[in-house]
Amino acid sequence: MVELGDSDKLRVGQVAIAVGNPLGFQSTVTAGVISALGRSLRSKTGRLIENVIQTDAALNPGNSGGPLVDSRGGVIGINTAIIQSAQGICFAIPINTMRWVVTQLIREGKVVRGFLGISGQTVPLPVKVMRYFQISHDSGVQIIDVTKGSPADRASLKEGDVVISLGGQAVDSVDDIHRKLTRESIGKSLDVVILRGWTLRLEKIIVPASSPV
C-alpha cells in the first residue's frame, strides 16, 4: 500500500524515484531529480499532453504506468513518456491530475470535459506585473496555440496571452483550467482574465464546448 503525494507541492531539484519493469526487468528502481514542472509534451498522434513533470530518472519501455515517487515514498506521478533521441528527458503525469481522472471515471464511467481550444503551459509571472495588476498568485497559463473556430478563438484569445483567472477563480497552473472544465461547464459563460504582452489586463467571456475527443 502506497500513499499518494501532492504534485502541486513539487519543486525543481527534489529527488524523484521511478519504479517499473523496463524491458521486462521487473521491479527496477531508478533515481533522479525533478528537472522541470508544467511542461507540455506532444505525443506521436499529435495530441498535446499538458502540465507534465519532467525528470531525469531513467525510464525505458515498460516503465509507463509505473509510479514516480518522492524521497518519502509518496507517489507524485505516473511515468508516461521519454524522448528517445535524448538522454535524461523523461515525463510523468502529476498525481493530482490522476486523482481528478479517477474520480471522473468512478462517477461517470468516462471523462467528460469542457473544451476551450487552447494549448498552454504554466509560466511564472514577473514580480513587476504582479504588483502592477495586484495579482496574488505568482504563475499563470500562457497560451501556445489556439484552435481555429474554438471557444477560445471566438473569445479572441491569442497565442502568447497569459490566463490568470477563469470562472472567477485564480489560474496559476494548467491543472486549474482542467479542473474548471468539467461536464457542468459546457455551454455556460465563464469570465476569463488574461494578460496580453504583460502590459494589458483584459476580461473576456468564453463558453466551453464539449470536448471533440
Q: What is the level-2 CATH architecture name of the largest domain?
A: Beta Barrel
Structure summary, number of beta strands: 14
In what order do the strands lie side by side in the largest sheet? 1-2-3-6-5-4
Give the CA-based shape: globular
Cα(first) to Cα(last) distance is 34 Å
Write down the CATH class of the largest domain: Mainly Beta
Strand content: 35-45%
Q: Structural class of the helices, strands and pairings?
A: alpha+beta
Order of helices and strands: EEEEEEHEEHEHEEHEEE
User: Over the alpha carbons, how many angstroms does the gyration radius reach?
Assistant: 18 Å
Q: What is the third-level CATH name, the topology of the largest domain?
A: Thrombin, subunit H
Characteristics:
15% helix; 6-stranded antiparallel sheet; 213 residues; single chain; 4 helices; globular; 2 domains; alpha+beta; 6-stranded antiparallel beta barrel; Thrombin, subunit H
